[in-house]
Amino acid sequence: METVTHTFAPVFDGASRVLVLGTFPSVKSRENRFYYGHPQNRFWRVMAGVTCGNVPQTLEEKKELLLTGRIALWDVIASCEITGSSDSSIRSVVPNDIAGLLLNTKIQAVFCNGQKAYELYVRYCEKNCGKKAVRLPSTSPANAAWNLERLTAGWREALGPYLL
Question: What is this structure's pTM?
Fold first, then answer.
């Protein structure tokens, strides 16, 4: 187990209306220095489906897809002890300043990518943020119960009202 610090900034701008939170970057994401860097994670395909955009390939395309869709993206954790990419191994959590982000934006709703992100948000951030989060099904390939079509439909239903 090693102590790791989150090294990339949240994605947001003045038009952002929803915040999607993950737990902490995977090893692959830390190598790529951007969110959801593992090719098997379905996050970018789901976001493309939710926003009716193309699946982004480059870092710039990923940021553009989010910002055009009025979606902010960050992780609950600023630093923690973690083994590899295992959310279940996370210990010694230091949360990101999500309350500060919400205070300085027009974000209206918070969504968590999976159960672990939701649990961490509730435990470390909800009270300071004063905003309940909605737990969405994880885009991780480990969530085999939800195929891409079902994931996209569920996420579109949840985020859709804020993206119009």
Answer: 0.95
